[in-house]
Design goal:
It contains 5 helices and 2 strands. The chain has about 150 residues and is mainly alpha-helical.
Length: about 150
């Protein structure tokens, strides 16, 4: 629009009166609010989609880690005799097969937590916190028992 057209439009709006002009402003504000809300909803939906995709990816990674650990335990049940032939430790193999991959992962996590608690115990002793170190040792032993229970 050029200046003349703007002036004509302003004259029309002035002739309409303040009531009609106020209604137009209200409608425009409502349209702007609706547009802003639509934009915010699109952003929220995109963020939700990204968050859901990330959660699914993390779950898939966790399942894969459990399967890797499960296969490693299965392979650990194989030994090689003097002739180089594979001999299966049948009892250990049956034990591992009876467990789910998730159980293997939980067992590994419990052992890792026990190791971390052992390191914390040493640090607490060095800093002069004997009671806390003893409580940490008890917790580490509990984690080991939990891991043993999962391997049975």
């Amino acid at each position: 629009m050029n200046n003349f057209e703007h002036a004509e439009r302003l004259a029309e709006l002035t002739a309409m009166g303040t009531h009609e002009l106020a209604l137009m402003v209200i409608r425009l504000e409502r349209d702007v609010d609706a547009y802003q809300l639509s934009d915010e909803l699109q952003v929220a939906l995109r963020q939700r989609g990204e968050r859901d995709a990330l959660q699914q990816l993390n779950a898939a990674i966790e399942r894969e880690a459990a399967l890797v650990l499960y296969v490693e335990r299965l392979l650990g049940c194989l030994v090689i005799d003097d002739d180089g032939a594979d001999i299966k430790k049948v009892s250990e193999l049956k034990e591992v097969i009876s467990q789910s991959p998730t159980t293997c992962l939980t067992r590994r996590d419990a052992l890792k937590q026990a190791e971390t608690l052992d390191e914390l115990e040493v640090a607490l002793k060095q800093c002069g916190y004997g009671d806390a170190a003893q409580a940490t040792r008890v917790r580490a032993n509990d984690k080991r028992k939990q891991a043993e229970g999962l391997s049975k």
